[in-house]
Amino acid sequence: xxxxxxxxxxxxxxxxxxxxxxxxxxxxxxxxxxxxxxxxxxxxxxxxxxxxxxxxxxxxxxxxxxxxxxxxxxxxxxxxxxxxxxxxxxxxxxxxxxxxxxxxxxxxxxxxxxxxxxxxxxxxxxxxxxxxxxxxxxxxxxxxxxxxxxxxxxxxxxxxxxxxxxxxxxxxxxxxxxxxxxxxxxxxxxxxxxxxxxxxxxxxxxxxxxxxxxxxxxxxxxxxxxxxxxxxxxxxxxxxxxxxxxxxxxxxxxxxxxxxxxxxxxxxxxxxxxxxxxxxxxxxxxxxxxxxxxxxxxxxxxxxxxxxxxxxxxxxxxxxxxxxxxxxxxxxxxxxxxxxxxxxxxxxxxxxxxxxxxxxxxxxxxxxxxxxxxxxxxxxxxxxxxxxxxxxxxxxxxxxxxxxxxxxxxxxxxxxxxxxxxxxxxxxxxxxxxxxxxxxxxxxxxxx
Length: 448
Known about the structure:
Strand content: under 5%
CATH superfamily: MFS general substrate transporter like domains
Distance between the termini: 30 Å
Structural class: mainly alpha
Order of helices and strands: HHHHHHHHHHHHHHHHHHHHH
Number of helices: 21
Radius of gyration: 21 Å
CATH topology: Growth Hormone, Chain: A
């Protein structure tokens, strides 16, 4: 692995760190927001989901600028969105301005979920692609842990009514760093070839490394995969020849959120307080959840190019079913009258759940979606997968407070059932993409 490849990967993956921080930071502010803006459960759910509405639109809209302007320049705009959101939410003067700036941050998150993994996939040799794209997921969970830890530290500072504003505002610093570091990265060689800028692509491939060891041969294979004599870079994504990757992307993205992962990340302190623990303990346990997420993401990153995508998904699916089933059973048994044993059962269930997600879906989703689409429609395919992911995330996050008020057991039992369906999908439908050059994956999926 060249130093240029590693550096470009780490910098692009900072979009993932901000993605994780931005999505999880609100978990520490829900009580403040409820109090300051006098929110009902429905309004709180909408407030949390407001960023996700932006995320949906950001994911849906990121494909076009990525194709027109390039992956690198689009990442610059995403960094600006993160910065504006951090400063704006910290200084919000009413509920509506808060919603607006969370929406802006959501646009950044949605864009990053498309462009960061796609860019890394396009600069990476096949033998390294899984672990390098998974660095985005590592940074996402590192950002989540930073958000939980930052919230805990700020809470311990006892800043009073400005506490929640500081929780949001600190994101401005990594957002500014992301913007400045992007000046050190090159453009995607596959995008450059698509723009008929082969000389620039050749220079980038020489720095980043190739599958064949020969930049000229790599460019020829990329050109063949684009097949611009018979295809257009602007041809529709929704056509018969792309049915298989479209359905695969939509399925893995839907299952990712039907596990309930964003409900746990956004409402971790709230869920833990439902078991009867104090507020400080709930925040500290949320840090433990973030730490578990990070550790098991690191484990997945180390083995994803050895074991492959399907094996990680199988292990993760089984862990999901066990942990969510245990959590549902604890809520059914102790709902409204939790004992220390019941609270411990929920905490252990959530820790195993996070570990299962980090080792399975969390590590695989952005790698898999970035691999299964041909070069000529990858940006739009990645956007479709991310769009589906964030639509489901908004639905899960918006409905969780209301459904949890009715029955925590019912909510987690539903998530368990969905993960049984995911297990069946992995066993009978999901293909393996480990170690296969991007241009060869499309052939294996029957795309010419």
